[in-house]
Write a structure and sequence with these properties.
Elements: E1 2-4, E2 15-18, H1 23-34, E3 39-42, H2 54-61, E4 67-70, H3 80-88, H4 90-100, E5 104-108, H5 132-151, E6 156-161, E7 163-165, H6 176-184, E8 189-192, E9 198-199, E10 201-203, H7 204-217, E11 219-225, E12 231-232, H8 233-244, E13 250-253, E14 264-265, H9 270-275, H10 284-296
Parallel strand pairs: 2-3, 2-4, 4-5, 5-6, 6-11, 7-10, 8-13, 9-14
Antiparallel strand pairs: 1-11, 9-12
Helix pairs in contact: 1-7, 2-4, 3-5, 4-5, 6-8, 6-10, 8-10
């Protein structure tokens, strides 16, 4: 469940964004500024969380009453070495939290923590991840819950976004992000098999807006960030080609293995509606139109 410690919106003294130069961190920092929150955005060039002295440096940057948003990660984690590096990043964060006593911690996790299910996933679904990336995030969640919430008593909230699309995505992930870049260069869109698997896709703007709401209400708990609707990759490819107005086609690539998540990964959004009844996700159609306009101004 989500519990709001602030009855009404109240900004933290400052928001310290760790991972501020990344796709998610940058979007949340931008949205936080719009909401009137004083933001200090820190990327790897500002503080490298795997460096031995980063805990001391971070502690000196923090003041009591600050909120921290942790999105810094080497992702997607694909190897054991990458997982260990991501876990190492928590040591300076935990040290700084113990020294500075911030008012709120937001951790950006992933829906990869969930087991596959034939039913829509909720915040109460089984978390038994089968990938290194999912194991990494679930381990980070557990460590932070014990160290931040239980040990130091700092309010702690975890967000678990599903597949995020947006013009600044650095991973060129399969789906809207990759498809838009293909049509931007005049290339056909390639899909695996028939592109029939059904997935939920959420706009980076919705991710940022919901995170700011959690900050303003100083919320505790776990919240999935997913629209509750699913679309096939073929349908997404068709929509993006239509938006491009180019004579492009969809190419089918034979699958090398089974469909991820058995071809289905949907979400129950009841908890989001309960926590923020005034909020509504943009539809995929609206989000793709918005992204199409943004991509026109994006350099190749």
């Amino acid at each position: 469940m989500i519990r709001h410690l602030n009855k009404n919106d109240h900004p933290p003294r400052r928001l310290i964004v760790l991972g501020g130069s990344g796709f998610i961190g940058k979007a949340i920092a931008t949205e936080s500024l719009k909401a009137g929150i004083n933001v200090i955005s820190l990327g790897r060039d500002d503080i490298d969380l795997v460096h031995p002295d980063s805990g001391t440096r971070l502690a000196k940057m923090l003041d009591e009453g600050d909120a921290i948003m942790m999105s810094s990660a080497r992702a997607p984690a694909k190897t054991f070495e990458m997982m260990l590096e991501n876990l190492t990043m928590l040591k300076p964060l935990i040290y700084a939290i113990g020294s500075a006593h911030p008012s709120h911690i937001v951790y950006v996790s992933s829906d990869a923590v969930y087991s596959d299910s034939p039913d829509p996933l909720s915040e109460f679904s089984e978390t038994n991840p089968a990938t290194v990336h999912g194991i990494m995030h679930k381990t980070r969640e557990t460590i932070l819950q014990n160290e931040v919430s239980i040990r130091f008593g700092v309010p702690f909230v975890v967000i678990r976004p599903t597949l995020i699309y947006g013009k600044d995505d650095p991973h060129n992930g399969y789906g809207p992000n990759k498809f838009f870049r293909l049509v931007q260069t005049g290339k056909n869109i390639s899909i695996f098999g028939k592109g029939e698997e059904l997935r939920d896709h959420v706009s980076i703007h919705d991710v940022a807006q919901l995170t700011v709401k959690l900050l303003l209400r100083r919320s505790e708990g776990v919240l999935n960030i997913a629209t509750g609707d699913t679309s096939s990759f073929r349908d997404i490819a068709k929509q993006i080609i239509a938006l491009s107005k180019l004579p492009l086609n969809i190419d089918e690539i034979p699958r090398a293995g089974p469909m991820p998540h058995n071809g289905y990964r949907a979400f129950d959004t009841f908890l989001t509606k309960l926590a923020f009844p005034e909020f509504s996700y943009k539809s995929l159609e609206t989000g793709l139109i918005e992204m199409s306009k943004e991509m026109k101004d994006r350099p190749l």
